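Incident log, structure service

09:12 report received: a user says their structure output differs between two submissions of the same chain.
09:20 pulled the input from the user's history:
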Amino acid sequence: MTASTTSPERPNQIARLDKISKLFGSFAALRQVSVDLEPGRCYVLLGENGAGKSTLLRVLAGLLRPTHGTITVFGGTAPQDARERIGYMSHAPMLYDELTAVENLQYFSNLYPARPCISPEDVLRQVGLDPTLSRTLGQYSQGMRQRTSLARVLLPVPELLLLDEPFSNMDVESACQMVDLLATFRHSSRTIVLTTHQRELAAPIADWVLTLKAGRVASFEPGSPSR
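09:34 re-ran on a clean worker, output below:
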């Protein structure tokens, strides 16, 4: 499979991008990007700042509509119509510093009235945090904040995880713990697409490595997952 040529749509495909371009005025953030995403796989997006990685995630999340091309998820649904099945973790934490982790997650779980959510306490345990901590998010370390941000994404049990720089500002030990955690989701048939500047961190779970350059696919290579 290559990123420049999509195959005929299959029922088990998670997502299909066909010649996606995204323009902001005269600036092309994405140029003719085509790729198929399969269940239970981890796709790592690499590229310099401005290469189009975050834009591609936002298009997959249904937060941006492509200027040209088509994108479908879950066998034919537009991303904006399937947002409750998609978990998007942006580079910004999107958490409230004055609330505890449990209070944050209670607030966000109320945004999914039509979808059963994991309890805030259980999802915090999933990401390795103690739900009984009474300190507010403003007192958390960067690693703990990243875990809480991931917990927010996991609340509605999404089938497609889109993670923008999940290892950002984390120490090596915390980042490796995050990789271990993501490995468990990958083995549960969830599809993960993540951006990173730290290829070596994501290498143990990367089934495919897609490198963008100036909005175009520069390479699309199989990874060597070990977890």
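09:41 both user submissions now match this output. Likely a transient worker issue. Closing.
09:42 reviewer note: Residues 54 and 222 are 21 Å apart (CA to CA). The chain has one domain: 15-222.
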